[in-house]
Amino acid sequence: MRTKAAPPSILTSAVIASRYIPVWIALALLVLVALGVAPETLSRTSFASAVLPLTSFLAIAALGQMLVIMTGGIDLSVPGSMTLAAMVVVGVARGSDDRLALAIMASLGVAGLVGLANGLLVGVLKFNALIVTLAIGQIVGGATIAYSDSIANESAVPVLLSTWVTRQFLSVSWIFWVALVVTLLLVFFFRYTELGRKFQSVGANPLAAWIVGIRVNAYVIFAYVAASLLYGLGGILLAGFIRSPSLGLGAPYLLGPIAAVVIGGASLTGGLASALSTWGAAFFLTLLSQMLRVLGLPSALQFVVFGAAIIGGMVISGDRIITVVERLLRNTSGFKEGDVELSQAQGGGPTIS
Predict the structure, then answer these.
(1) Among 86, 117, 97, 99, which residue's Cα sits nearest to residue 234?
(2) Is there a contact between 48 and 171 (Cβ–Cβ < 8 Å)?
(3) Which is deepest, 8, 188, 267, 275, by most CB within 10 Å?
(4) Bridge partners for 37 per DSSP
(5) How far is CA 64 from the centre of its chain?
(6) What pTM does this model have?
(7) pLDDT tens, position by position, 252-271
(8) Residues 6+ apart with CB under 8 A from 11
(9) How deeply is 3 buried, as exposed, middle or buried, from its count of CB atoms within 10 A (0-12, 13-18, 19+)?
């Protein structure tokens, strides 16, 4: 007797899940390589003082970028937003613990305004996201330089912030726990809330979402504002970590978050992404970078290896995985190529985690 094929919904779920598997396989392989050639990379000291904190900064920025990419956009204002947030914390607090709460609110408020500007220009006026965010990033960078002139040289964040950031819980920095909480909140948001499911529908098929009455522009604006708030949070934590932030604080976070989102299996056309896989990709990139440093490779070679790893991750993840799996299942009874897109457009079916 011929076995009856699985329902389309199950096959569709399998196809969607397949796009997130490569990053975890790559991470497992990297851990094995590190154990063999650079075990110091995985030492408790290295993990606590470098790998997990740096992973957390990249993950927070990448999760913000993920929200934007899910709408089919991209955000190049990340470095400017993070640097401005860090400088505002220093400038408003003026080294006083009593003013720390005000400084954090001001910092997040400024970051939110940057996101609102991006969202209005992209979501309402329909300007190109890459050009808009690049331009906004330049404006924010200029504003940060001007603002920093009013801050005394070598100014530091309040002691309360730097102490809390470096303090550990369960032998792990609080920075890690903040990033983990943000990741889990996004998992809950997309999996269990109506707002999250509608957000995914907007990214998967804006026209279909508009037809069923979803306010597409509002969700696009929301994506940029929420993303910018996460950049601001990352800037605040990073400022506390290094204590005396400089104007180059956000520079490493221009392309890193984009790479983490794509390696994590996100579709650059919007709709599909996973918060957990994005965190995993950030961990992979940070661990790789730390391993190359431990091996003592020349800086030039480190950049070559790092870049090759990113390209390799993009080749074997995301839309390419979906295409391969769809071809394998194309002749399976009950499954047609395009079921994934239809499921997303209708706002039903599998959700991201």
Answers:
(1) 86
(2) yes
(3) 275
(4) none
(5) 5
(6) 0.87
(7) 898 889 989 988 888 777 87
(8) 5, 329, 332, 334, 335, 339
(9) exposed
